[in-house]
Write a structure and sequence with these properties.
By secondary structure, the chain is mainly beta. It is built from two helices and 18 strands. Strands 1, 3, 4, 7, 10 and 12 form a six-stranded antiparallel sheet that branches. Strands 2, 5, 6, 8, 9 and 11 form a six-stranded antiparallel sheet that branches. Strands 13, 14, 15, 16, 17 and 18 form a six-stranded antiparallel sheet that branches. Strand 14 (206-211) and strand 15 (218-232) form a beta hairpin. The two termini are 25 Å apart. The model is unreliable at 1-19 (pLDDT under 50).
Length: 280
Amino acid sequence: MKKIFTLVVLLVAGLCIQAQVNYRVLFDFEEGNDTTYWISFANGAESARTDIDVVLNPMTDDVNSTDSVLMMDINIDAEGWVGYYTDLDVLYQDFDYPESAVGFDEETYMMSLMVYKTVYSPTRIKLERSLTGAANITVADTNTVVDAWQFLEYDFSSQIGHYFQRLTIFPESTSKSNRTEELVVYLDNIGIQDPSNTSVKEFEGAKMKLYPNPADYRIAVVYPEMTGVRLLNINGQEIRTLNFGLTSSKVVEVGDLATGTYFVTAITSKGDFTMPFVKK
């Protein structure tokens, strides 16, 4: 078994593309009027004042080197669901914006953004006003650093085939009763997946997909009717197995793995299907 896995690794090593998932930016806030169509809500009694604005990037670095970002000044008495939203169909008609809705298919179902906070808390994306009858959907990711930019990713694979016209961002999730001070949150580069760097392999007439590959902190595994996902090391030894209900997509945390080549196995009633990936 060890010789077989080693051979596979040697064959794959020369084929791996050293790139993350590509994201096409929907909002980069490089134009000052980007806030014209963003509406804030639940920001407390003082929300009549300007609480969102496009400002200079507070810290340009390797994560975010752009000049301008979106800033929200969150009041002490803001609700836990404080945030802002935009209606893409309005933008499409009234502003130089290319799309009237956000939609997902089998190769485009991740979203992303960059956030700069002074606290650890979830940043949530909510999609509303579906054109295809889907319920509103909210997905969260939490920053693991403070006082620095961090790239966050959001898996909307449960919404494949659906389109939404309203994009809502909840930049900070502290409950009103626990909020002790005013908070400023910076956000930038809201994007949607460009599928050009997704690893794909066909098994039994169905496509298994992994992204990003190479991966930093998490990897999405896509295969029809999975009931589990297993991680293996280069020698074919099991690292961990996740069992769950029937699904076609699962995000697996890999941030604790050492740099190197690993294997992901999709467990299904029809058999197990394995693909390699690289941990950066």
